[in-house]
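go over this:
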Amino acid sequence: MMYQPKYYKSIRLSVIIWMTVILIGAFSFGGLWLNIPNVPMLEHTARNLYFHVPMWFTMMTLTALSAIHAFQCLRTKSELSDIRSSAAALIAIVFGLLGLATGSMWARFTWYEGTNLWWNFDPKQSMAAVQVCIYGAYFALRSAIDDPHQRARIAAVYNLFAFVTVPFLLYVLPRQLESLHPGAEGNPAFSDITDPMMRIVFYPAVLGFIGIGWILYTQRVRLSRVSLTLKKMQ
C-alpha cells in the first residue's frame, strides 16, 4: 500500500464537511442571507453560480498545477513530476467537461428557454470547449509515444503550451466578443445582476470545489504510482 500522509484524511473530511455546508447554503430557500434575488430570466437558476463557475476555477487551478509539474519534469526529468502533471491535467479535463455540461443546462433554461437549443456556439462556450479539446489532445499525444522518457519530455512541452492558452481562451478573448455571458462586451458583470449576499456561498464554493479537485488529483497520483510500481515488478 502506498504511503498516505497523516493529514490527508483530515483534509478529505474537512472538504466533505465544507461542501455539505455549501450544498445546504446553495439550496436553502429560507433565511435572509441565503435568498436568491428574483433576477429576470435567471430566477432560481442563479444557484448554478455556486457550481458552474467554481468548476472552471478548479480547472484553471489544476492546469496551473499541471504546468508547474511539467516544468519540473523538463528541469529534473523526474518520473514523479510527469505523473503529477498528467494527473492534474486529467482531473482538469473532468472539471472542464462538468463546466461545459452545467453551462449548457444553464443556457437551456435561461437564454434558450422555449426552444430545443442546448448549445448555440456562444463565444465563451465555444472557447471553453476548445480549451477542453486542447487538453484532450495532450492525452492523445501521450498515448502516441511509447518511450516513457520521450513521452514525458514532449508531453511536458505541450502542457506548457496548453497552459499559456488558458487565460486567453477562458477570460481575455471571450470578453472582447459579443456574448450572452455576463461580463462580455455590452453585458453587465454577474456581480451587477445578482445579490451581493450570494458571495457568502459562492466564494466558499470555489474553495470547496478546488478541495475536491485536490482530493481527486492526489488519488490519481497514488493510483498511477501503484500501477507504475506493479508494472516494474513484472
About this structure: The chain has one domain: 6-233. The mean pLDDT is 85. Residues 36 and 44 are 7 Å apart (CA to CA). Helices lie at 6-26, 52-76, 79-108, 123-143, 148-176, 190-193, 199-233.
